[in-house]
Amino acid sequence: MSAQGFAPRAVLFDLDNTLIDFMRMKRASCEAAISAMVDAGLPLGKDEAYKELFALYDVHGIEDQRIFQKFLKRVSGTVDYKVLASGITAYRRAQTGVLEPYPHVRSTLLGLKERGIKLGIVSDAPRLRAWIRLSEMNLAEFFDVVVTIGDTKRRKPSRLPFDAALKQMGMAADEILFVGDNPERDIAGAKKAGMRAALAKYGQMHACRGPEPDYVLNDIADLLKVIP
User: Fold this and answer.
1) Are 73 and 99 in contact, with CB atoms under 8 Å apart?
2) What dotted CATH number matches 10-21+102-226?
């Protein structure tokens, strides 16, 4: 894969499913939470409870911070705080154990920094959660700019989060490469803002329509081949 003369001054990344194997963490954490809630008295089988929980995530969003309360009201008509506390505690314990970057993330970020390339994040995650994830994986120090849903109140593919990153970077759009796993949101939003875009194929969860990326990455380390 050739950069065809493109030498960006900065690379912006999506966070979840681009740098972090987010859905692996979410599934493992939710499985732990469901098991704990069933043990604490939730009147539902584990498989059925897991399906009900993810059906609610589909409605309210994967980052909903009150999803367990909504889940308990849906399946039992009330919030039993013993069951709720058991679920939240188990979720947090499991999350810490399985939250990790994809292979080669750290070495790739180091390689980009050594080339003098500035790095940033544009994520739909809540501000505190994004920073906690970066901190837990010891990645926070790599990034000059972190833009989250809390900064613009708009989700990708709106160009506003990308424009906010451009402003903070002090660069033009044609100096930046954006890397994300979702063509419909990441690639489309970056293109709207005038950036080149690379699809993180290794983290793509679903086939969805979107503009063609300039590059396709089967491993994040492919960035070091793309960028001269």
Assistant:
1) no
2) 3.40.50.1000
